[in-house]
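Much of our argument rests on the idea that a fold can be written as discrete symbols. The record that follows shows the chain in one-letter code together with its fold in token form.
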Amino acid sequence: MKTTRVSILAAIAVVIAVTVAFAKHHAAPKMAPLAGEVWFQYHPASSGPSDENNYTEISSTSCTAGNTLCAIKVKKDPSTGLPDATDLANVQSLIAAGQPVANRVVFKNQ
């Protein structure tokens, strides 16, 4: 009787451990916080949207729809005041897709 009770408790402990491990492994990824990010207006140039020199900081954007890049929201490089190069590189696929992403990439009509 005592060994049966110990076996049942051991089995319950194993089930709990497996459940916790599964839940941790399959947890939804957390989104990166937007703290410290600012809007930058895009100014078209031959070097394209991947060049941080083609952007100026703005307080907000009024762009709502269209097919031409208007502005992006990324971290600011404190030494240059321009978009952070890594963040700018990370939004290039969003820009190339041509689809707006709320609070990240907006487009306008020409």
